Recover the amino acids of this structure.
């Protein structure tokens, strides 16, 4: 695809600047301002402040009423960076450990390329989304009228994927990322002297029993033909060796792809908690939050993405979904589309996402731009008389 290579160096520099100045979800003020500046410079219609710090740029060409949305997330993670890079984060405790700086740069490059080549007939909406990392920025953009104000027949998102080699593009029809639930169970006793346990309901013992029971849910309540994960990630209680604490909390996460499976897991968790509480003489309160639904690709959109990918790189059908979650799921609930993995792995030295040593692979910048452009040009191909 002609002329994209001359965009790469400035975009890499832009990406490094964003990387050095990371911002957490709903706080991406500098990031959004820098993106808006670049979009205005190429003459796009820019709408700011959607979903807090989100923005949408609109590019129209020709006379068709057809449309497509291309999305990139902008937020960083609350992690200390350990890369030692010259452009490492200048903000303690915050860095781009998931590559959203790269996603922003690739979508900006696609906007630049499509604005100058205009080999499409219709409207391209470039969606720069805040707060993907657990805060539901996509949900907020949808609530505030994203697809009402900027109608899209289909919407696509790319995410770099270190588990795939650089140059590879993968997606699949149906589920591609898991639903994410989180729970916190508080067990309440009375507290008392550890030397007189018969006088005090033991919240720690109740928590130990509950942890064991919860770990049977997937194996004994979910059919082996379904996929799900339940992990206990925190147990908190007590402050000294000779006191039985009054309160213990057990927290964790559940990942699944099928809403019916979600229902079974939540119902079993609540029933087991009630049973354990009764048998140990404690009371229990449960907070269960289904904060991200499963990311489910529209079959036609996924196949369109694979066809577009095959024209510019090594396209492959992803054999299995991932249990990690993604709030692009909210956009896919409102508009047909697909989520796509862009391989960025550097062989055995590939560093995983959310790792303090992670960095986006600038070598795949051009491929990501080409994929965005191919998606837009394929979906909005001019009709021939």
């Amino acid at each position: 695809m002609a002329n994209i290579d001359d965009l790469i160096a400035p975009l890499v520099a832009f990406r490094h600047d964003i990387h050095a100045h990371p911002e957490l979800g709903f706080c991406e003020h500098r990031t959004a301002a820098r993106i808006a500046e670049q979009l205005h410079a190429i003459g796009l219609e820019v709408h700011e402040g959607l979903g807090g710090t989100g923005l949408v740029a609109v590019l129209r060409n020709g006379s068709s009423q057809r449309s497509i949305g291309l999305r990139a997330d902008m937020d960083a993670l609350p992690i200390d960076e350990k890369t030692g890079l010259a452009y490492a984060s200048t903000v303690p405790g915050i860095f781009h450990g998931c590559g959203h700086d790269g996603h922003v740069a690739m979508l900006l490059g696609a906007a630049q390329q499509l604005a100058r080549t205009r080999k499409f007939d219709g409207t391209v909406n470039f969606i720069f989304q805040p707060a993907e990392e657990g805060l539901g920025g996509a949900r907020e953009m949808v609530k505030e009228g994203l697809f009402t104000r900027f109608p899209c027949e289909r919407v696509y998102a790319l995410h770099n994927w270190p588990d795939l080699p650089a140059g590879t593009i993968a997606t699949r029809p149906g589920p591609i990322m898991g639903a994410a639930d989180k729970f916190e169970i508080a067990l309440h006793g009375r507290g008392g002297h550890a030397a007189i346990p018969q006088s005090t309901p033991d919240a720690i013992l109740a928590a130990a029993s509950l942890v064991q029971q919860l770990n049977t849910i997937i194996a004994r309540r979910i059919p082996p033909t379904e996929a799900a994960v339940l992990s206990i990630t925190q147990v908190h209680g007590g402050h000294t060796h000779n006191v039985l604490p009054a309160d213990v909390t057990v927290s964790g996460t559940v990942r699944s792809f099928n809403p019916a499976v979600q229902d079974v897991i939540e119902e079993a968790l609540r029933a087991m908690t009630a049973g354990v509480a009764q048998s140990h003489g404690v009371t229990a309160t449960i907070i269960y939050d289904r904060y991200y639904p499963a990311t489910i690709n529209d079959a036609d959109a996924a196949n369109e993405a694979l066809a577009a990918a095959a024209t510019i790189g090594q396209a492959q059908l992803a054999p299995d979904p991932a249990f990690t979650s993604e709030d692009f799921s909210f956009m896919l609930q409102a508009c047909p589309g697909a989520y796509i993995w862009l391989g960025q792995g550097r062989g055995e030295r590939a560093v995983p996402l959310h790792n303090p040593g992670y960095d986006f692979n600038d070598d795949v910048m051009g491929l990501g731009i080409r994929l965005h452009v191919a998606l837009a040009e394929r979906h909005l191909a001019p009709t021939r008389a």
In short: The mean pLDDT is 96. The two ends are 25 Å apart (CA to CA).
